[in-house]
Amino acid sequence: MLKSSSDKVKFAPIKEVDYKTPVSKSKKYTLINDIQPLEWYCHNDSETGYQQTINNRADSSNVVTSSGGLFGVVKKSMETRIETQTLYFTDLQSGLCGFVQLLYSTVMGGIYKGFQLNFKIFGSENNNSDYDVWESFKLDNITEFQPLKLVSRSVIFEFLNNKDEKLGSIGQLSIKCDLPTCNNTIQNLKIDLMVDLFQGFKMNPNGCNYYFDKPITSTEESVSSDKMIRHVFVPRGKCNGHISYDKRLNNGNFQNKTLDLADVPVVYLDAVQGLLPNKAASKWNFLCFQSENYSTLAIEFTTPQEYDNFTVTVWSITEKNKLIAIGSSVSSPKRHVRFRATSTDKESGWIYPTSIKFPGRFSERDLRLVNRYDVLGELPSMVRSLAQKIVSIKPFIYQYCQPSKYKHEKGISIIESTFIS
């Protein structure tokens, strides 16, 4: 719950927004109508220091023990910085969904720094489960890092200022990837996508929720801190292109998988955490629903006890590529995510949802679990060992994908519930 004006707090959330307020009338968020607000937030830390490191690079290792190294760009005072730029795609024809994600991280004061490509495909129906794959790849040999462009030997991720007024596009995102040697599960990963992005938004002034080492008065304005959670949302876009990879079969051979995407609806999300994940939130919930005419997007996190157990929820509704409703809640439990039914994971101990309700009048009674993801299990061994010794956490992601309905229109929903501490 929100504190009274005289209370001291260590967490300053975004402002609450009544979703019934017309989109063009609210002054509590900014609509995004061009690609400039989509630039890498972490790039502002030290673009000069980064470029000097590229020019003088002698070691491309992702693990460093000093302020130097390939990605010596984050302020020394920062405990951690993690930024993800994620494109979720939902192919309504094939039922196949997934995401392509670039992740930048500097963890635990710089013990681990680097870029990573995360790639996931899963099906909304049991009959296309053969496509299921979730892989992560370190990106070495970064040759260019600009606010709207990242280039490595194998990946190009670039925003283009190509607006299409008839289509309603604010610009485009081009993703190209060619990884001839991949992990044990997949090989020969090739991605060539062109995405038309439609209107987005961020909460004023810059999409941030702030964390403080010392309590401040809850009425203080213009607060700021290096420790924050920040989000920028583009709830709707359309993607064209193809993805192909060779997937290892049970007999050890490889079989080629190819996805041809034609006007497939997508969500683009930029997220930044300026402190350790277990300090930023104790749990998360996420929704991405896509149908022919509608997109419903929601994201929610709850701060740990140290930051007063605030729950922050943001959601939006898009109809025919235009935002028609944006809402956020901090003080009203009625506008937070609710688990209508649950089950207990005997291994991890987490109680995860089997039926769920989101604000914006979206609910799913028959959640179909497609992945149970042990987060620490995917970290480098050194980082994982330190995390387990320093803090007692056991983060798990429960990911769901299933046919759903919104306003009586059939579509597909991707839902995630994450538990950290």
From TrEMBL:
Residues 277-421 form the Svf1-like C-terminal domain. It is found in: Cytoplasm. Pfam families: Svf1, Svf1_C. Residues 82-273 form the Svf1-like N-terminal domain. InterPro entries: Ceramide-binding_SVF1, Svf1-like_C, Svf1-like_N. GO terms for cellular component: cytoplasm. PANTHER family: CERAMIDE-BINDING PROTEIN SVF1-RELATED (PTHR47107:SF1), SVF1-LIKE PROTEIN YDR222W-RELATED (PTHR47107). Its main location: cytoplasm. GO terms for biological process: response to oxidative stress. Keywords: Cytoplasm. Signal peptide: none annotated. This is YDR222W. Belongs to the SVF1 family.
